[in-house]
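Working notes for the structural subgroup meeting. M.R. asked for a predicted model of this chain before we commit to crystallization trials. I am recording the input and output together here so anyone reviewing the notebook later can reproduce the run.

Input as submitted:
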Amino acid sequence: MGSYGVPAGEEQLVTWQHDLKLWTMRGTNLEPTVPEGSTLLVKTRWRVIHRGDIVVFKAPAINLPYLWVLRIWLVPGDILPESLQRDDRPLQLPDSHYWLQGGDHAYDSRHFGLLPVSGIRGIVLGLLQGGPPVTIECLIE
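Returned structure, recorded in token form:
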């Protein structure tokens, strides 16, 4: 299954300053941006989530022991595009809810719907590559 991110029982490799953690990406739902096996530098305390952020989250309505990794595509107040709507009336994202998407075959909001902010475990700040921390490629501004 290529659409999950990190096993929930093994997600935390290291904790820094109580709000930065390292997680290992399992799956291919965000390739080539986040290759499988990448070590993710994740901020677990944040104030604002922006469109385009990559987040680690617990998918709603799924009873699997995985955390997932996807990109924020729509934020509160955005209107869901007609091609994604399930009925005829426009859907505006409510406060504290997000629409997440990955690649064409990713298990994302097209399957599980809106994600409440309470499901988000962290925001990916960058990737650590090459084994021990050598290079950080920032994914967000």
